[in-house]
Amino acid sequence: MTDTSMIDAVFDISGNHIPNHYPFALWNSLVQRIPALENEALVGVIPLRTAISEAGMLLPKRSKLVLRLTARLAANFACLTDQTLDLGDATLQLGSGKLRKIQPYSTLHAHLVASAKDEVAFLKDVSTQLNELGIVGKLLCGMRNTMQAKDYFISGYSLVIHDLKPDDSLKLQYAGLGADRRYGCGIFIPYKVITDLD
């Protein structure tokens, strides 16, 4: 079931570099400040925009931390303003935050939708989930990706879904696909327009 009052909380951030396994430490740090996050399956953290260098993952200027929240948790977002989040090997400094309404886009992208299956079985599972949600769209599967911490391993695929109607686009952004939303998996965000895919 989707929560039609999902909303994004967007924070200015600053920092130099972040570890490759940052999603796990970031979630733990967020839960320490807002414990209620732990009990919300639809809540997620949109992956940070990063740049790869010899020093590791760098944060470009104007990077943002975006939390996808249910309405009942949105009132708590302000407590994160000006907080320093511990990422293990680095820290992330939050600035001011604001709430941003989720908008419909015809093409959406998820960095990683968790699945241990091969690509054919994965796409079949995605089609089944979309049918259950009443969503119609065309699928474009990307590369297999993995995330790993000392005691946690996630594998899956990047995924683009296009030719979405406005209502279906909102449904998909509210509900997401698959597990591990808290680590940035299965969360859909706007993607550049795709043409000539057929």
CATH architecture group name of the largest domain? 2-Layer Sandwich
User: Counting H and I runs of at least 4 residues, what is the number of helices?
Assistant: 4
Instruction: Output the structural class.
Output: alpha+beta
Which word captures the global form? globular
Rg: 16 Å
For the record, the CATH class of the largest domain is: Alpha Beta
Describe the main β-sheet briefly: 5 strands, antiparallel
Q: SSE string, helix = H, strand = E?
A: EEHEEEEHEEEHEEHE
Give, in spatial order, the strands making up the sheet with the most strands: 3-6-1-8-7
Strand content: 35-45%
Structural domain count: 2
Mean pLDDT: 89
Could you tell me the number of beta strands? 12
Can you describe what's shown?
This protein has 2 domains: 7-100, Alpha-Beta Plaits (2-Layer Sandwich), CATH 3.30.70; 108-190. The protein is globular, with a radius of gyration of 16 Å. A hairpin with a 2-residue loop joins strand 10 and strand 11 (152-162). The strands form 3 sheets. It has a 5-stranded antiparallel sheet with strand order 3-6-1-8-7. With 198 residues, the chain is an alpha+beta fold. The protein contains 4 helices and 12 strands.
